[in-house]
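Re: the 390-residue chain
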Amino acid sequence: MKALPQKRTIIYVNFSPYENSGYILDYLLSNFTTILLFSFQFYKLQNSRHTDSLIVYKNGKIIRQYTLFHAPIATSLTFFLLPVRSLAILIQILFCAITLQKKYGPYDIYFTVNAFTAWIGNILKQLCLVPKTIFWVWDYYPPIHTDKIAMFMRKIYWYFDKQASVHSSKLVFLNQRLIDVRKKTNILPPDKSYPVVSIGTKPLKRPVRKELKPLKLVFFGVVKKSQGLDCVFQVEQILKNHYKTFELHVIGGGPDLPYYQQKAVTSPIRTKFYGYIKSEQQIQRIISACHIGLATYVPDKSNVSYYTDPSKIKLYLSMGLPVITTDVFTFSKEIRSHEAGAIVSYNSSSEFIAAIDTIVRSYDHYQIQALTLSRTYYYNKIYKRLFSDV
């Protein structure tokens, strides 16, 4: 593998709060002289003051921040007005890239994880504003959904996915499942291979010894029903009776946060909602003080989690937390084989309780296994493949 050239400038586009998922921004800051980070917000993250922005980094430090236009939209209208927001994103990326080229350019690479913004990057390439585009494919949105508007928007997104997959300078995928679905639909040639780079980790050096009373479960991420928080509330009385002192910690905002806050009002277990937290250090402190990470995704055909590599699980493992998850994504097989957590059926309350009991009884073992698995995906080691040969 060739060494990465030095002194390069990269345009990086992502959506909040995923800009540094798997420590990808940390990696860019260490390997590129200048970074233009476009950050857009899709979901309203409750107490977040975040707005769409362009942050310019030079030698690892912020030197300028530009506030971009962001129209606040009610959650119920998110999908309906998605074309308007997408048009605003297109115009702003093109405008900033063109007007700021003399100040921060020349640009060497355009890098993103979203099909629509990857399509925009290829426009910049056609305009000769950037020579190389990298599309790190994070997801696949099945063109099926119970909501007709959401299904229509997914079909439109699939068009941009096809275009970005064909015209990007380099395609990298989170897992083999994302490659297979594109080959099955004849977007990618069946005989060609593509690099797979998973979400990275930054593991602790050693496990943190903890008292298991009170027992603390933690959820981190965008708060949506598809993320499976209902698994806890469905067995809340059993957990209270069994463990006496049991806590649920929820880090993040999202469209269904009010729904779960209302559930917690009458719940017998203590639940603490932190809302959206920007500080990674604060997030890590909260997670490391807990015992088990929760990632019980709903196994629905329209759930995009089936095709992704959940960054929250990688973060739990990095902090030495065993995880409880469902058999939705490919990484669950590694969790099972490494005994880094437990895989449960979504609708099985008995399996969920049994998983907690099993982890608690051999907590030191599961904690060590979680850290051991996380070291396999150390971000500084695996992200070199993203930018090699470009």
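The chain has 16 helices and 13 strands.
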